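Example 3.2
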Amino acid sequence: EAKENQLKELRHKYFTANTRKEKIILQKQDKKLRQEIAKMLENDGWGTTVAQQIVAFDPYDQNHFADWFDPEWMFGVTTGFDIVIGNPPYVSTKGVDEKDKKELLKQYGFADDTYNHFYFRGIQLLKDKGILAYISSKTFWTIQTKKNLRELFLKNTILQLFDTANPFESAMVDTCVAIVKKVSPSEEHTITFLDGKKDLNKPEIYLVAQSVYANAPNQVFFLPTPYNLKIYERLGKKVNELLKQWWDAISTSKNIEKNKAKLEAYRNSLKPGDVTLLGLITEGGVGIQTGNNGKYIGVLDGTKWADIVRKQRHEKLLLATAFCKKQDINKKQDAQRFLETLNEKEIRNLFDTLKEQYGRDVFGQGWLYRIVSKDEIADVEKLTEKEKLNGIAGTKTFVPYDKGDKDGNRWYAPTPYYIDWSRENVKFLKENSGKKGEGMPVVRNPQFYFREGFCWNLINATRSSVDLKVRYVNNSVYDVGSMRLMSNLNYRFNYYLICILNSELENKFAELFVNFTLNFQINDARQLPIIIPTDEQLKAFESIFNRAYKVQKQKFDGAITEEEAGQALADIQKELDMMVEEMYMGGKD
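Structure, written as C-alpha cells:
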C-alpha cells in the first residue's frame, strides 16, 4: 500500500511538472516503481501475468487513450468533477482508425464521431449535480445516428443550448454550446435556448420545457420559436407516436415487405384528415449501383451531355498510353483523327476493351463514353414485365436511367442518361450483385424499376436549411443517387405527395424534426408527416402538380424561356404553400 501511495504521489507530481526534463525523470521513477510493485505481487502469489500487465501498462503512452486519463492521480479527484469544460475534436467516423473503433466499441458500446464519445466521457467524469459545458458540432440535434447522445442529454438536466451557427471561418460544420447538469430533470424544468445565428453577441433568447424535446420525433432538438412550437404541437407529437408504433415496420424495404398485410390493413383504415407518415403509405428504395457505369450507361445524342462526351473522348484516349504508342497517337489531334475513323459502336467497344486492359478507373471513375441514338431506345410503355425484370432482346435495348438531377429541378426533369437493359447485361448485373471485386454491381429493389413515383436528390440542404426538390419519375431504372418512392394508395397520390413534399412547411418540418444536415436519405423521407386529403383537396393539389409539371415540360422543350418558367413556378409555389399551410396548420397566425 505504501508503494501504491508513492506511485499516486509520483504521478501527481508528473502531471504538475513544468519541464520536459523533470517529466522524463518522473517517468523513469514510475517505471521502476511499477516493476517493484509487480515483483511484490508475484512473490505474494498473484502470478506472473498480473505482474507483467502492471509493468507493461504505461500511463504516459497515449496509445492507451482509453485508460490514459485518470482523475485520481492527475488531480486527486475520486468522486467526480464539479465541472467539465471542453471543445471536443470534430473527427468523423471515417477519420477514426479501425483499431481505435474497436477500442471505442469496447469502452462505450458504439463507435461514432469523436465528439459524441467526449460527451459520454465528460458526463461520466462528473460528480452528481456536476456541470458539463462543451462547444461542439450540432449535427447531434437531429440525425438518427446521434439519437443516443440526445437520450443522454434528456436523462440529465439541460441548462442551456446555444446555437452558435458557424462562428469560425475554417469550420466546416455548424456548432453549438451545450450546458448539462448531471441530475435527472424535474417534470417542469425549462431550458434556456439561445439563437446566435444572426448575432452571436446578442442572441435571441427562448425558454422551452425539456419535456418538449423528450416528446419530439426521435427526441430531436430544435429552435423553439412560437411557430416551430406550433408545428410541434400540430404535427410533431403525432409523428412521434407514429414512429414509436410503426418505425420498425417501415425502416427498410425488407421490413415493409415483411409487414405488408399489417400495413395494408392500416392504410385501409385511414380517413381524410388523419396524420400518417410518408413511409406508411409508400414503398420504394434506393436503386442500382452498376459498379462500372461506362460499360452500361450512355447519354442521349443531341444533348449538351453528348457534346461534352465528344469533346472529352480524345483527351481520355491519351490516358491509355501503351495503346496510343502502338497506334502512333501522341497528341489530342492524333486521338481525334483516330476516333473519327470509328463509328459509335466501335468507339464503345474500344473504350470497353481499354478499361478491361488498364482497369475500370483508367479514364476516371464513372466517366461515360457511350452516346445513345434514338434508334437504340426501347419504347418502355410497351415493355413486358418479363423484359423489365430480365432485359430486352434485339437492338433497341436502352431505357431511361435516372442518376439524380444536380440542377435541382422540382416537378419534372428529363433524364439525358440511358442504360443498356439488354438480356446479357441484366443477367450479369443480377447474377453478380453484391459480389466482391472491382466492377461488381449491387442491384437494389428491382421490383420498383419502371414504376411511377417520385424522387429527390441525395444532397438537398445547406447548413442552415433544408430544400427538398421533389419531382415526378416514371418508366425508368434508377441508381443510388436518385432514391424513389411511390404511393401505396393510388397513383393520384403520387401527385399529391410531390406537392406536399415541395411545400415550404414540409421542408420546415424536415429541417426541424428529421435532418438538417446535407444528406437527406430515404429513411429521413419516411418520417415526414402526411395528412390524408379529401377528394376535393386531392383534386386541388393534382391541379397544382399538373400546372407545375406543364411549365417544366415547356421549359425543357424550349417552348418558354427559363425566366418565364421561373416566374410561373414561383407563382404556383406561393399558391401551394398557402394551401399546405391552411390544410396542415389552419393558416398563418
